Amino acid sequence: MATVKTPKFANGKVFAWVDKWNRICKPEKIVVVKGTKEEHLAICEMMVKKGQFIKLDPKKRPDCYLARSHESDVARVEGRTFICSKNEIDAGPTNHWMDPVEMKAKMTKAYTGCMKGRTMYVIPFAMGPIGNPITQYGIELTDSPYVVVNMNIMTRTGSDVLKHLGKDGSFVPCIHSVGAPLKKGQKDVAWPCAKRIEDKYITQFPEDGEIWSFGSGYGGNALLGKKCFALRIASKLAKDQGWMAEHMLILTLTSPEKKQYHVTAAFPSACGKTNLAMMLPKLPGWKLQTIGDDIAWLKPGADGRLYAINPENGFFGVAPGTSNDSNPNALKSCKKGTIFTNVVLTPDGDIWWEDMGIKAPKEGVDWKGNKCYVCADDPYRMGPKPGMTKKEIKEMGYVAAHKNSRFTAPAENCPVLDKAGFNGLYNGKPTGVPIDAMLFGGRRPSTIPLVNEAKSWTHGVFLGSAAGSEVTAAVISDQIGQVRRDPMAMLPFFGYNVCDYFQHWLEMERTSADASKLPRIYFVNWFRKTADGKFMWPGFGDNSRVLKWICQRIEGKVKANETPIGNLPFPKDIDLANNDDPNPNFRVDPKYLKDLLTVDVEGWKKEIATVGASYDEYDAKPSKDSNVRSTTAHRVPKALRQVLADVSAKLEN
Ligand code: GTP
Ligand code: SPV
Ligand code: MN
Q1: Nearest ligand, CA of residue 318?
Q2: Which entry of 271, 375, 414, 499 is annotated as an active-site residue?
Q3: Which of 88, 116, 247, 582 is the most buried (most CB within 10 A)?
Q4: Which tens digit of pLDDT belongs to each residue from 307-329?
Q5: CA 618 to chain centre
Q6: HSE-CB for 505 with a 13 A CA cutoff
């Protein structure tokens, strides 16, 4: 079969690369994405015609669509994610590795003819505001129109990017295929993908700065600007160039005295970044604005401070649990121009999910495309058959919206967007915003206090390296709910050896122009539970109480309880103003404050042992699947081992 003609590009590198993949993938047609609204909506309408999108009611949800994915394709696939560095040890103990030459040969075979009967879209995109000195550029080739319209929301796409690249600008080449070629006359399915998990590949070549993805059309597997580029490839670039690419939200907080603070927070997937990033503070007089909800790129400034931009352009947010009570700003962000994936369709052309705080419709269509019905004894639940009870539905493990169902919403819809910060500006200059505090966290039902302040940068790096969290539905895994170590919330996203990553964090202090100006580091936990499984802390808007304490610490206005694990607030210093929500779930119960702010010594001894075991696991191990230990470097830095030993000794006293 003859290949179609490769379109012309002013940039020779772009042309050569598109031409190469045109010959391998053999698409029926090639479309270069311009990035206009008309083009975006035309692709959505084309997908409606093909049965791949459902158009939602244009009055209730203008320009909004619903997609349902294949059952094999509902989240990231960590088991099929590879870091293909030349040397295995450069991938490190947290990553699957394969020799890059071997992987390229294997995947090229899979890509051969993989776009037959399909259109290849060329998506030029920017990670960050076009022209900002921190911004990087990429081009994604994909045979998935779903990916095109999601990339249009999540990144800045289109002709402006090509223009910016000019005749010889560089870009990160990202090749993506759903891996489902069509024979002549074969009808397409609603969600094409490679159905067997073992046929999916999410591959990064950090040394070449290339991304090759095959077989999945979902989220971070397929929207290659996000985890593959902005974290895995960028983290390696950042290490080589002295900056940081982190799984962090960025927010702007303004105190009643009108002082501004910029805060980042790294929590693992589905552990509360989007929620904190657009939270409505309960504390009177405090204002919070969003810059980003998932990824931060941070560069050291000449003044020693770290300056951050959000490389993304939209939110790929977890739907279930997003309600007017928990995150009204996220719901408002989804009002128009949003793509919903794997949520419930209501009879009036709207969407619904569990814990949306809205009564379920009498009947609807669940994420698998089957009918679902309001629960007999709980108007906020749905079941697969009419008249089922809450207990029956729970026992079946049934949910009508998939636990990792998501909304893809434009950031510009967010009512509390910090527009300047989002555009990479601070005091009118394109530097990004200076960060005052960095938070780490995770879902920890026990042991970890509500908030813990690091005593130094190194101690903060230790706290980040020691992070752990219950595994959530954001990844396809048989360990959901179990606590796993997730250093800096980056476990699935390191583009290189985790030991070198720890060292890089330490280097940020050593190489800083003024280390005293680095952000303070805190470890938070909104997820402590009582013995009978109730949250001890209301979370969400009440988290502003913790942010206030952090600001007061930065200002030196409040003393802390200096403990072996770090500096904790005295319970009296957590401001409980406005603690009168009619719903007790959204009220701080002062009786838990002491527990939340006391060191559980026995729990911490176990914690320290587990962290030590994770360090031992990381030491000199070439990759996740190898069992031989290398004799070369790539060990957990001595400075972190030292903190571990110090904390351990203090706990014994
Ligand atoms: P990714 O997009 O996967 O990186 O996730 P994320 O870190 O942005 O998580 P998100 O904010 O979407 O929250 C995921 C889930 O955690 C939702 O169901 C939220 O309702 C819940 N959640 C968020 N913040 C809190 C909190 O402070 N307390 C409690 N109890 N739950 C929370
Ligand atoms: C995450 O899992 O951390 C996400 C969703 O933000 S995804 O884009 O699929 O990685
Ligand atoms: Mn994330």
Answers
A1: 1
A2: 271
A3: 247
A4: 999 999 999 999 999 999 999 99
A5: 23
A6: 28
